[in-house]
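Please check this today:
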Amino acid sequence: MSAAEVETFYVTEIDRIEQWRHEALERAGYDPEAAIVLAASHDVDLHAAVSLLERGCSVELALQILL
């Protein structure tokens, strides 16, 4: 496997992970724009982001806490 093939696979895998995170965040109640930002922020814990909304946090406050 060439370096280009490995890089393409890696980018594709990252894209798939971010898409999955985005969908999970939208299901939790984040608006699409906020979900995109959080999904691409790999240092943000997905479970913590979902938990904040489940515990009654507004999206705006959750974003302030997480970012």
Q: What stands out?
A: The chain is about 80% helix and 0% strand. Residues 11 and 18 are 10 Å apart (CA to CA). The mean pLDDT is 91.
